[in-house]
From TrEMBL:
Name this polypeptide is given: Spermidine/putrescine transport system ATP-binding protein
Residue ranges of domain ABC transporter in the record: 4-234
GO terms of molecular function: ATP binding
KW ATP-binding (keyword) present: yes
Species whose genome carries this gene: Azospirillum rugosum
Assigned keywords, A-Z: ATP-binding, Nucleotide-binding, Transport
Pfam entry (one): TOBE_2
Length: 353
């Protein structure tokens, strides 16, 4: 049984289609990241799930119950906003207990639960501190604790870590993931940061221009991107235009590659990650190699990055320092594209949407 089903959810603002037919099944206990560039519709999608925005079309179902029309306060979801929306004049404990107070819980129960929740977010002993006296990371934890106060069915967070500095942000990503694993609560986080999504998510939902391009585990999104947008947005990749010339053979700038999974004919786009491209000294023989010239090389300590001109196109390759061939900038070399590393995608013009 799916915990949450999005069935063709659409949101229009006048002529702007912010979310276009989003369909997704989210099983119980998953950590989901809605990932995409600014304006792709991820906040609008989260707000529709939360009940803060009415869909223009489609349905939202939780545990087989249609909640498309249910008001936000009856959905029993916990939400953390980018702004955190804490009450500055209240203490950390009062902020956390606020949802319990409006449900009529007694003072002792409020206090007990606030302390439990502060333990849960690893912030014990600050119940009586005004939130205005807490650091950014501490306030973040208070907002998370408050959203969990009513034991929600679904935990929704909109760019929760974006106000934190890089180091704290990384630490909080790991902490949030561990907290979610301890609680087993289905969680949906909006982020534009692919590293953040890869760190936390069981399921990465990649969006662009209001559409879901792919929803898959992080390594699948990385290794088997559904289209050119996903391949390009997640990490670095080499995109090569190709034309299938014979069964299993594709002509690309600078030569020919032999690959499985090619269509019988027509144009294709190949995506090959830089760490999969193998750099060889010039003149060495082998399958699936193209000749090129080294245009730039940089030593990054743990790895070496090559920029190679192949028939006027730049190919990026990353190797271990010990595998680096003896070549100087401007010198010839050959680059190998192992068949298993080449993801065959539809050509640019035909990609969805
Ligand atoms: P960001 O990361 O910048 O917050 P996002 O991916 O969350 O972007 P949304 O905020 O969901 O994107 O916006 C998607 C599209 O819908 C944008 O083109 C935006 O301008 C438009 N939009 C969002 N809210 C409204 C609104 N209330 N009225 C009109 N247009 C809106």
């Amino acid at each position: 049984m799916s915990a949450l089903v999005l069935d063709g959810l659409t949101k229009r603002y006048g002529s702007v289609v912010a979310v276009h037919g989003a369909s997704l099944r989210i099983p119980h206990g998953q950590f989901v990241c809605l990932l995409g560039p600014s304006g792709c519709g991820k906040t609008t999608l989260l707000r529709m799930i939360a009940g803060l925005e009415d869909p223009s079309g489609g349905r939202l179902v939780i545990d087989d119950k249609d909640i498309t029309e249910a008001p936000a306060h009856l959905r029993e979801f916990g939400m953390v906003f980018q702004s955190l929306a804490l009450f500055p004049h209240l203490t950390a404990g009062e902020n956390i207990a606020y949802p319990l107070r409006i449900r009529g819980a007694g003072k002792a129960e409020q206090r007990k639960r606030a302390e439990e929740l502060l333990e849960l977010v690893r912030l014990p002993g600050v119940a009586d501190r005004p939130v205005s006296k807490l650091s950014g990371g501490q306030r973040q934890r208070v907002a998370i604790a408050r959203a969990l106060a009513l034991k929600p069915k679904l935990f929704l967070l909109d760019e929760p870590l974006s106000a934190l500095d890089a180091k704290l942000r990384e630490a909080m990503q790991i902490e949030l993931k561990q907290l979610q694993q301890r609680l087993g609560i289905t969680t949906i986080v909006v982020t534009h940061d692919q590293r953040e999504a890869m760190t936390m998510a069981d399921l990465v939902v990649v969006m662009s221009q209001g559409r879901i391009h792919q929803a898959a585990p992080p390594m699948e999104v990385y290794r088997q991107p559904a289209d050119a947008f996903v391949a390009d947005f997640i990490g670095l990749t080499n995109l090569l235009d190709g034309e299938v010339t014979a069964p299993g053979a594709v002509a690309v700038p600078g030569g020919q590659l032999h690959l499985p999974n090619l269509p019988p004919s027509g144009r294709v786009l190949l995506s090959v990650r830089p760490e999969e491209v193998i750099v060889h000294p010039a003149g060495s023989d082998g399958p699936n190699r193209l000749n090129g010239r080294l245009s730039f090389m940089r030593d990054l300590g743990a790895s070496v990055e090559f920029r190679i001109d192949v028939a006027g196109r730049e190919i990026v390759a990353v190797s271990r320092p010990q595998d680096r061939p003896p070549v100087e900038p401007g010198g010839p070399l050959s680059v190998e594209f192992p068949p298993a590393a080449c993801v065959v995608l539809p050509p640019m013009a035909e990609r969805q949407p």
